[in-house]
Amino acid sequence: MKKSSIYRLFLVIITATLAIFLVNVFYVTDTYQVDVDWPQKHRVMQAVEKHLTTADGKASAAIKKNAKVFRVFVDSKKSGAKPFAEDIYSLEGKWHALKSYLPFIKNESHKKFISEKFSQYFFSNSSIIILNVSSLC
């Protein structure tokens, strides 16, 4: 991940946190008894709204970019749907499902079987993590 991406992300997070804090202090709650005249309070609110708008725009752009990347990733895995279904409904899949209902047996082989087949035909947790990390760069 590039340092500039990390710094931008950090700046957006800090700006949003500060904006939320200022809105809570000066606008939402009266727990903080701050004696501020109205014009100064109004200027603070305008500044907060400006920062929130900027942060919202950056977040929306990042979401749009990453949604496209994720959509392409998921579309590339669609070809595994039929073989996945065939394996799940095969005799082996049915046996794993049946074993989980047998008395006196605490067997989670069906969950394990489904998880393995899903990882085989679609994606595993590690590939999702790699996709998330690559989308942040």
What would you note in describing this structure?
The protein has 137 residues and is mainly α. The protein has two domains: 1-77; 78-121, no CATH class. 78% of the residues lie in helices and 0% in strands. The protein is built from six helices and no strands. It has helices spanning 3-28, 38-76, 81-88, 91-99, 109-121, 125-136. Helix 1 (3-28) packs across helix 2 (38-76). The longest helix has 39 residues, at 38-76.
Features:
mainly alpha, single chain, elongated, 137 residues
Question: Approximately how much beta-strand content do the residues carry?
Answer: under 5%
Total E-strand runs = 0
Q: List unreliable stretches of 5+ residues.
A: none
> What is the molecular shape?
elongated
From N to C, what is the helix and strand string? HHHHHH
Helix content: over 70%
The computed structural class is mainly alpha
The Rg value, from CA coordinates, equals 25 Å
Number of helices: 6
Mean pLDDT score: 78
Count of the separate structural domains: 2
Cα end-to-end separation? 5 Å
Largest sheet: none
Briefly summarize what is shown.
This protein has 137 residues and is mainly α. The chain is 78% helix and 0% strand.
